[in-house]
Specification:
single chain, 178 residues, Jelly Rolls, six-stranded antiparallel β-sheet, 40% helix, globular
Length: 178
């Protein structure tokens, strides 16, 4: 199957992930992507799985969910054409923080960490711009999450809600706290 790299590059230019890249860099990235199709009901990846790629939604609709501890999945976000997801695994090398499930047949463009490394080797300026775009989107998501946490805490009358740093060196078990 022949892929229209020019059309794909134009599509990528309209996404927050690749905004600002010049035509040559967009074509390079378009050539790196692997087109994947998923039917409604399919799971792209599950929470806790190791990952080495991120996805741009070319068409369709997906939902990102996380286990809420009650046995029910909590919907974190809806994803549609132009959205990207899975990028955190490329940055922090940690398991997937949520599951991505297809709600309406989807065509995704997959970009692996090897592809990003190749972009770094071939065009460091474009690579840095892509990382800045990732960081910008992560900041937007963090800001939206903060607004939601604030609203939930206010609704619950919880004046003690706070975000504190966690990690292996700060976990309650290692500190000796209950």
């Amino acid at each position: 199957m022949h892929r229209d790299m020019g059309g794909l590059a134009r599509f990528l230019a309209r996404t927050p992930f690749f905004g600002g890249l010049d035509d040559k860099a967009l074509r390079r990235v378009a050539e790196m992507t692997n087109e994947r199709e998923f039917p409604a009901g399919a799971t792209v990846f599950g929470e806790g799985e190791q990952g080495c790629s991120m996805y741009v939604v070319e068409s369709g609709e997906l939902v990102a969910t996380r286990n809420g501890g009650s046995g029910r999945a909590v919907k974190l976000m809806r994803l549609a054409a132009g959205d990207f997801f899975g990028e955190t695994t490329l940055i922090e090398m940690q398991p997937r923080p949520f599951s991505a499930t297809v709600e309406r047949d989807a065509r995704l463009l997959e970009l692996s960490n090897a592809d990003l490394y190749r972009l770094y080797r071939e065009d460091v300026k474009s690579y840095v711009l892509v990382l800045q775009n990732i960081n910008r989107e992560l900041c937007r998501r963090l800001r939206r999450a903060s607004v939601r946490i604030t609203a939930y805490a206010a609704e619950a009358g919880d004046e003690l809600t706070q975000i504190r740093e966690t990690g292996p060196e700060l976990s309650p078990i290692k500190r000796g706290s209950p």
